[in-house]
Amino acid sequence: MLKPEQKKELEKITLQLRRDLVEMIGIGVAGHLGGSSSLAETMAVLYFNKMNFSADRLKDPNRDRLVLSKGHAALIQYAALCEKGCFPREELKRVKKLDALLQGHPDLSIPGIEAVTGSLGQGLSISLGLALALRLNKSPARVYTIMGDGEQSEGQLWEASMAAANFKIDNLTAFLDWNSVQATGATKDIFNIPDLDKKWTSFGWHSINVDGHTVEAILNAIEEAETIKGKPTLIILKTIKGKGFSFAEGNPAYHNGILTEETYKQALKELDAIKAGL
Amino acid sequence: MEKQSLRKAYGDALVELGKQNSDVVALEADLGKSTMSCLFKDAFPDRYFEMGIAEQNMASTSAGLALGGKIPFYSTFAVFASGRAYDQIRCSIAIPRANVKICGSSCGLSDFGDGKTHQSIEDSNVIKTLPNMIVINPLDAVEVKKVMKFLLSYEGPAYIRINRNDLPVFTAEEGEFELGKLRTIVDGNDALIFATGAMVWKSVEAAGLLKKDGISAQVVNVSAVKPLVKEEILKYTAGKKAIITVEEAVKIGGLGAGIAAEIIGEVNLPFEQVGINDTFGTSAHGYDELLEKYGLSTNHIYNAVKRALNK
User: Fold this and answer.
1) What is this structure's pTM?
2) DSSP per residue over chain B, as a string?
3) Which residue of A has its CA nearest to B49?
4) pLDDT along chain A (278 residues), means of 10
5) B1 pLDDT exceeds 90?
């Protein structure tokens, strides 16, 4: 359970991560605002409450791992890793620039990143491998994976889903960022996958549905997952793509869109307004 | 000449590595009885992962195991080990230099009966285009064991290509495998044959035929089609009258193309490639029938050397 001051702290971090997103994208350059913003609360809970992870022991074999299978949302993970002190804040300004530390998609050369992702559908398999390695080593560490809802059409995810259940993996928790929008439109219009929840449970997973913008709900789901033995857990995060920015919410244009000077200023103003209310 | 199974050598070597290092793990896609990874399963059931017929997941899961500090070897038929999981090898394994060893078994035309869908004639060409990957074609069972020993100490991703057939053993047990190093199998000074994998023995036979005609051909084993080291290649070219490359793979992007690219402008000699033309394979009742059909028989090599010397 979160104490009120812990909850407030996580909400402040969430706001800071969203502010970093806007500043990383900047004006006139395309960036994945939508699918990054939908994960701000989840990143805050994982990195700033739940995970055994710190910048001064990035190679600790017993650290918890986070693999961002939907690698295009790298910016939100970069924001969190920066807040954790994995690299200086100046790096955020150089994201995706030639020879910059922060690449367009997660790369092992970036401190705190655990896997190369971006070619969709591979992150859960990599996480399964990590989970198997940790289990062989009798490590208490856990593996977290974040998938997108558009990504659910990748067949490899279902291979990994079956394998994880087959191996009775219970040190792996996957998240499904169900923001209902993919690159070119609403997920239900592009490639509709009905009964996602039932599909995962019928593949042998425990599943939990939560509001992905409520830090307590996310934390409770993660803690429930820790109690489930002999099978992996999927946490379905009901989210809003572009959450926190009125012009971007639910708008496919901000899957990987450009901020104009006007939308950039508006985005910061909206964040300030939320901050004032905290 | 005594023939031995390269697959059995792979399985035995895997068990040996497993004894030496408890981080070694093996993954398989329901073909462990063919690849012989089943020997590892018997020896170390806890470190063996039957991934089912799901090669893409097997490749990326191997990457995760490697990122978690394990030394995974995954095996299945070469065509599936490579092409079926190409993007997984690229993103999950090659880009992060994950310490994953991939065994492409039943390579080339050696899965003769199963035909074009199962014959892997482009796997090594495709995988070698990926940065960070190395590609090794052992020529006999003894070399398989040496390569496996090398792979345990080599930190990084690798692709090893194993023939389905028992092949003559003609290398010595002594010595170690050295990456990028070329070795003379038959000495000679007229023609220079660079051969790889099962084609080395065929080239040795061709050199025997040529000798009867008074032609001296040197057969050099190129174990690794990547990396190819220019200086190593140039050590052998001085004084020769022609160069012939021999591989059980499509010519496009293969060993011949690789050697040619390294020596062009440095060496001006007639050049002939023995390899598979731009075509897929077909079913046959025997391996040798296919080698004959696709231009990889001893006679084809013999003729290629003659053609090159007459240029």
Assistant:
1) 0.97
2) --EEEHHHHHHHHHHHHHHH-TTEEEEESS-HHHHSTHHHHHH-GGGEEE--S-HHHHHHHHHHHHHTT-EEEEEEEHHHHHGGGHHHIIIIIITTT---EEEEES-BT-SGGG-TTT-BSSHHHHHHTSTT-EEE--SSHHHHHHHHHHHHH--S-EEEE--SSEEE--S-SSS---TT-EEEEE--SSEEEEE-TTHHHHHHHHHHHHHHTT--EEEEEE-EEESPPHHHHHHHHTT-SEEEEEEEEESTTSHHHHHHHHHTTT----EEEEEE-SS-----S-HHHHHHHTT-SHHHHHHHHHHHHT-
3) A167
4) 93 97 95 96 98 98 98 98 98 96 97 98 98 98 98 98 98 97 93 95 98 98 98 98 96 94 97 92
5) no
Owner of token pair 């490579």: B82
Nearest to B49 by CA among A160, A202, A115: A160
* The pLDDT of residue B228 is above 90: yes
ipTM surpasses cut 0.90: yes
Q: Does B68 touch chain A (CB under 8 A)?
A: yes
Q: B69 and A61: CB-CB below 8 Å?
A: yes
| Each residue's pLDDT tens digit, A111-170 | 999 999 999 999 999 999 999 999 999 999 999 999 999 999 999 999 999 999 999 999
Q: What is the pLDDT of residues B262-304, one digit of tens each?
A: 999 999 999 999 999 999 999 999 999 999 999 999 999 999 9
Which residues 29-58 of B have a C-beta within 8 angstroms of A? 46-47, 49, 51-52, 54, 56-57
- Nearest Cα of chain A lies from the Cα of B46 at a distance, in angstroms, of 8
